[in-house]
Amino acid sequence: MQSRGLFTDVAVTFVVTLVAAIIVTLLWNLIAHGEAAIDWPNAFRLAIILAIALPVVNRAGKRGKAR
User: DSSP states of 8-20 as a string?
Assistant: First the structure.
């Protein structure tokens, strides 16, 4: 049960982070450069890193409070 919850947390965090990074880079490029471009490599890199780090840290924090 714990691993399924962790997988769900990772998947949700990945999707939310990816969408946010896409929107931010698109708006940044529109405002700063006047062209609609998305920085795909950085968006995926950020989403992967945060999708792993945030759920693990969140679970570690909950486990520390339970002790």
Answer: HHHHHHHHHHHHH
The span from the CA of 67 to the CA of 60, in Å, is 11
Structural contact between residues 37 and 24, judged by C-beta atoms closer than 8 angstroms: no
Average pLDDT over residues 26-53: 96
The token duo for 28 is 């940044």
The predicted model scores a pTM of: 0.85
Find out whether 51 and 10 touch, Cβ atoms under 8 Å: yes
In terms of residue numbers, what domain contains 40?
Answer: 2-66
- Domain total for the chain? 1
